[in-house]
Amino acid sequence: QVQLVESGGGLVQPGGSLTLSCVASGFTFGDYAMNWYRQAPGKERELVANITRAGDNTIYPASVHGRFTISRDNVKNTAYLSMRNLKPEDTAVYYCDVPHLVRGQGTQVTVSS
Predict the structure, then answer these.
(1) How far apart are CA 74 and CA 23, in angstroms?
(2) CA angle 47-41-110, nearest 5°?
(3) What is the per-residue pLDDT across 48-76, written as a single tens digit (0 to 9) for each?
(4) CA dihedral defined by 102, 107, 49, 57, rounded to 10 degrees?
(5) Distance between CA atoms of residues 26 and 68, nearest Å
(6) Number of C-alpha atoms within 13 angstroms, CB side, residue 83?
């Protein structure tokens, strides 16, 4: 079964850090680029990070550039999203995604004091 399972979400104070994990199964993980998206209530889904198959190139929007880092371990079939200096506006459900193949169920990140 093709599947992505996220974990690592939670409640964090502004300025804090959090690392999300996304474990893949049912397909050859290293053959695909990976994305992390987020969606806040009442807002459109936003791409926050992209990484190539080999992990040698990444892309971020201006809203998270310099604060978020995407990485992957193709041996462990896992992608990561490390987030630092978190802001209340980063509050959302975060999803990992393989384009045109599968998306995870999401993990909630709440940034609040």
Answers:
(1) 10
(2) 80
(3) 999 999 999 999 999 999 999 999 999 99
(4) -70
(5) 27
(6) 31
